[in-house]
Amino acid sequence: MLPAEAQKSSERIAVTAKRMIDVRSGKEITDAVIFIEKNKIVNVGSGLSIPDSVQVIALGDVTLLPGLIDAHTHLLHQYYAKYGDDNSNRLLEMVQLGPARRALLGARLAREMLEAGFTSVRDLGNAGINADIALRDAIKNGDVPGPRMFVSTRALAPVGGQFQSVTPEAQQLIGQEYIQISGVEEARKAVRQAVYEGADCIKVIANSGARRLSSEEMKVIVEEAKRANLPVAAHATDGDGPSMTAVEAGVSSIEHGYTISEAVLNLMAKKNIFLVPTDASGVTRYQDRIKRALKAGVRIAIGSDIYYEFPGMTRGQASIGMYKTYVASGMSNMEILRASTLNPADLIGSNSIGTIEAGRFADIIAVKGNPLNDIGVLEGVVFVMKDGKVYKQTLH
Ligand SMILES: [Zn+2]
After folding, report:
1. Centre of ligand 1 from the C-alpha of residue 388, in Å
2. With a threshold of 0.90, does the pTM exceed it?
3. In a domain, 4, yes or no
4. Which residues 6+ apart lie within 8 Å of 271 measured at CB?
5. What does the pLDDT look like over 221-235, one tens digit per residue?
6. How confident is the model at residue 64 (pLDDT cuts 50, 70, 90)?
7. Total domain count for the chain?
8. Is residue 91 a part of any domain in this protein?
9. How far is the CA of 389 from the centre of ligand 1 (A)?
């Protein structure tokens, strides 16, 4: 027998707070009231009157914000400093963790991200073969709590992926983590495969050190991804060559871009290509490029790219510490908030997340204090609602 029709949830609820930030207009709204019906926001404003029939979640002296969006995560991927550097961890992870185990690791990290205030993430590979799809769908189905996930499946990469040189026997493992591209037809096939498997975006490793994809390969990847309406995220480091190749091909975002030049930034601004800097808390080496990107008019979507264990911290706590770094890089607090909400939503290609506006999903967080005065308050999220459901409320 089919279960009875789920409880009719046409009732509205209202979330109220002393302040709300409208990330689109850049305005602060006092005495904020957000009306929610099922999983959507239906009305927002200052001092709106609330009918008696409406259930109220009164949060008091806090600031409401759209749920945070982390533009670059690896939720099925965790390295440990005790095992050494990336190279040794990479091999251990491949040998020890199959996709099922990684998906279960991901279930924990996803919950930790949600509890920290991230209601959506763009998860860019290092998830084994399609374990990211499994976790995304399990979250969507309500099997485990977590953010909305926009996933890439395996990253497309030059031969060898991001592995150092390993024995021929060990090279068989590389295909568990990367689709290795050699030639335009392999590039085309890899994107079509990702589309078939249910990817929400394409991740491409434009270079792994000196190993690079060609301009022809990159163009075909973008062409095929565009046909399926999927954005392309390009990992590009080591000088200007890889990022220029990716930008000329028309990718949607450059990931990291530590050494990016004015020439590339100017072209990115012209082509509306995002920079996704991944500067963890305390990393100051590459701050200068943030100022140069803003000056060139490049939109920024902030990503954590955390994949090491931080003892004593959850993945969410380790990730949310990144925002302070961008104050030191010269971004205003409002720019940081936009780069964590509206900009990544646009990069993902969704007009259902990233702002508190009628018609969008009810993905809402609250912090004590005001992030326009102190961005550090984001580290103390006291309320998390995703899809109209409350996952955290530590005020009362
Ligand atoms: Zn990454």
Report:
1. 30
2. yes
3. no
4. 247, 250
5. 999 999 999 999 999
6. very high
7. 2
8. yes
9. 29
